[in-house]
Fold this protein.
Amino acid sequence: MSSPGGWAAPGQSPSQPEPGPRPPQPPHPAAPPHTSSEAGGPPAVPPAAGPAQPPPSAGPGLPPPTITYQPGVIPFRPLGLGDIYGAAFKIIKGNPAATVGTALIIALIALIPTTPLGLWVARQGSSDWLDPTAPVDESAGADVILVTAGQYIPTIAGSLATVALAGFIAYVTGQAVLGRKVKLPEAWRGTRPHLLRVIGVSLLVSLVVFLVAAAFLTPGIALMIVGLTGGDDGLVIGGLVTLLGLGLLLIPTLLFLWTKFAFVGPAVVLERAGIGPSIRRSWQLTRFPGFWRLLGIRLLTTILLSVIAQILVIPLTLALTAAILVGGIGPDGLVTMQVVIGALVTLISAAATTPVTATVDTLLYVDQRMRTEALDVHLLQTVEGRAPLPWQPAPDPLARSAA
């Protein structure tokens, strides 16, 4: 038996008190200095309490859950397909004026002057070849070329306008990754210094693609022309076979170039690269084996958006078909309607699909840099104040004037 003072009977240890209520204990002394994390000191070091246990949310045999930092539309880690598509629609929804609004403005700027020009060119050729009752003369071929060229003038102008739009979207997407919403004036200030380079590199890429396509298709077309001119059916058949064979080889070649040049716009806008360096940068970031993933995601995105664009265009197509069936529109009116509908289709495509494709391309650019250059680590260091921003926002003219 032990006494309250700590005395114990022979054969009994003082560390084994009798059961029963214990008197209140005095408060514990303050923790030693090395366990405090206040006043900017080192983090608290808890005393050892046996082997480490997983957090309660982790199941048996499962690793503890990882925490990913996400100040913007994407987490700072390599992205999956769902991350990319979800972030793309978040960016468009959160910045409608700087994405869809910019697409509409740029497309209208391109289409307002070129649609009347296309109508004028189309009307230079006779539309009698559209009338099945009219006789076919020697000038029918030239008329077809003029009418077709007039129809495609607005489409080509709209396609060139989307080149500039890709630069705007790249800037908006880059800022959304950092957690910033961008309004239209800032998007203009951030893209304007790079706009000429964006247009220049896009025209250069288009020229390269055109020359490659011409190199594949010219031999077969030349053989067919020579055969038709000389009345040699063997050359015509040989030219047709050559054209089909080289055309099949052209498809993977164009897909290869389409993927290798995918990041020229983001490289110009976000890295402020020149025309040549942006092409080299895009070529570097699309190396194998990541090439196949980029090609698959871009193909899937293009197919899905093409289906959506066709759905949006169906009412216009039905209206044209109804006008033809009713017979209330003559050949001249039909040419006019085709040019106008082509311009409207280009406008709808620019507003509905181009912002999505440009956003997905920029997100793929960021994802590829995370996978190959540890951009996610750089972004985390930026959040912690240990590294500069990977791309800078546009300067605020009001703040600059106030300073």
Q: What stands out?
A: The mean pLDDT is 79. The first helix runs from residue 81 to 94. Residues 81-199+289-381 form one domain. The chain is about 65% helix and 0% strand.
